[in-house]
Amino acid sequence: MKSVDEIAADIVAREGGYVNDPDDPGGATKYGVTIGTMRRLGLDLTGDGSVDTADVRALRRDQAAAIFKRHYFERPGIARLPAPLQASVFDMYVNAGANAVKILQRMVSRMGYPARDDGVIGPKTLAAVTAAAEAAPDHIADGYGIERRNYYYALADRRRASRKYARTKSGDKGGWIRRAEEFIAPRYHLSDSAHRERTASWG
């Protein structure tokens, strides 16, 4: 199993370099770290007294990995989750914040282990997730990955501007879907035809 440092490095590599996509609510981003996160953390890397796109551009890979490890893994309590879930929930937390935990809470609740979907990994959530993982040790990670994939599709259903992240111009799986399926066993990946059927209503 990969260490948290290895997972953080994978996330940095997956997120890529500087982008400032007008369709991305996060705004200017580098290695997955948004300008909003840098402002919240007060990361004035250029030393000019303000945090702007120049600071985002100046961010280094090691700094991004350290931010993820501290603020997206340790602080939310992902380190306390059952090991099979940590990598996917960590990756999702970087991508979608507390929604990563809410998805997990709703999933284990449907499995019969109630957890309030508040996005917080407290004692009750931890107990529910641990019990669910013990009940389905061979399926808990795939189950979460599938829920995550469903979340991305549903988000694109609601927000037209987000569809380009779930489906390419040629109709293939977009970055969001491929990202989710990195944490799902191949036998549970959607076929290309199933993906096209799922997104057909988008026009």
Quickly list its features.
globular, 203 residues, 2 domains, 11 helices, mainly alpha
Offer a quick outline of the entry.
This protein has 203 residues and is mainly alpha-helical.
SSE diagram, text form:
Blueprint: H1 4-15, E1 29-30, E2 33-34, H2 35-41, H3 53-58, H4 61-74, H5 83-96, H6 99-110, H7 123-135, H8 140-158, H9 163-166, H10 175-181, H11 192-199
Helix pairs in contact: 1-4, 1-5, 5-6, 5-8, 6-7, 6-8, 8-10
Q: Can you give a write-up of this model?
A:
Strands 1-2 form a two-stranded antiparallel sheet. With 203 residues, it is an all-alpha fold. The longest helix has 19 residues, at 140-158. It starts with a helix and ends with a helix. It contains 11 helices and 2 strands. Helix content is 57%, strand content 2%. Strand 1 and strand 2 (33-34) form a beta hairpin. It folds into 2 domains: 1-75, no CATH class; 81-203, no CATH class.
In order across it, which strands form the biggest sheet?
A: 1-2
Biggest sheet overview = 2 strands, antiparallel
Q: Which class do the helix and strand fractions yield?
A: mainly alpha
The share of residues in extended strands comes to: under 5%
Overall domain count: 2
Summarize model confidence as the mean pLDDT: 95
Give the % helix: 55-70%
Termini gap:
41 Å
The number of helical runs is 11
Low-confidence stretches: none
